[in-house]
Amino acid sequence: MRHVRIHPRTLGYLGRALSLELSAVQQYMTQASLAEAWGLTEAATRFREETVEEMKHAERIIQRMLILGVAPNASQLRPAGVARNLVDLLRQDAVLEAEIIALYQEAVTFCLRIGDQANGEFFQGLLQDETVHAQELEQWLIALGVPRVQDRNERAYF
């Protein structure tokens, strides 16, 4: 591990990102098992694929932390989201993905503001992946016939 000067707030973003990505791994893994128990084989397969994608994100974050000379530390995993049906599982996933996206947007903005181009680009890559994932979740909900709702602040949610 080489030691690089890094802003403490950037380290905080990395730690929170690792916690959220590992929370997503746990959530998708749990949901795959639930979907399988319900006989929803295709949904179980998709959730397992999402588990792998989130594990890859967690691995990227761990590698980044090691490059920066920091020991990886996921401070708090969230409980896995369980529900009684597929739509409610997907709604929980949409909330988690929105939180992850918001973190990455904030991290990109901060890194670019302080002139930390390398970490800004790192977070930007994760942000792009998660944005695509959120769009895929949205399309899955739409395919299931779930209408989008706008709140007073013009945010769409399911």
TrEMBL record:
Binding site for Fe cation 1: 21, 54, 57, 130
Needed cofactors: heme b
A cellular component annotation (GO) from this entry: cytosol
PROSITE patterns linked to this entry: FERRITIN_LIKE (PS50905)
Enzymatic reactions: Fe(2+)(in) = Fe(2+)(out); 4 Fe(2+) + O2 + 4 H(+) = 4 Fe(3+) + 2 H2O
Recorded GO MF terms: ferric iron binding; ferroxidase activity; heme binding
Enzyme class: oxidoreductase
Residues reported in the UniProt entry to bind heme b: 55
One biological process term in Gene Ontology: iron ion transport
Residues passing through the membrane, by range: none
InterPro entries reported in the protein's UniProt record: Bacterioferritin, Ferritin-like, Ferritin-like_diiron, Ferritin-like_SF, Ferritin_DPS_dom
Keywords in alphabetical order: Heme, Iron, Iron storage, Metal-binding
Domain Ferritin-like diiron: 4-148
Superkingdom as given in the UniProt entry: Bacteria
Enzyme nomenclature, EC number: 1.16.3.1
Protein residues bound to Fe cation 2: 54, 97, 130, 133
Pfam families attached to this UniProt entry: Ferritin (PF00210)
Protein residues bound to Fe cation 3: 53
Family: Belongs to the bacterioferritin family.
PANTHER family named in the record: BACTERIOFERRITIN
Function: Iron-storage protein, whose ferroxidase center binds Fe(2+), oxidizes it using dioxygen to Fe(3+), and participates in the subsequent Fe(3+) oxide mineral core formation within the central cavity of the BFR protein shell.
Protein name: Bacterioferritin
UniProt lineage: Bacteria, Pseudomonadati, Pseudomonadota, Gammaproteobacteria, Chromatiales
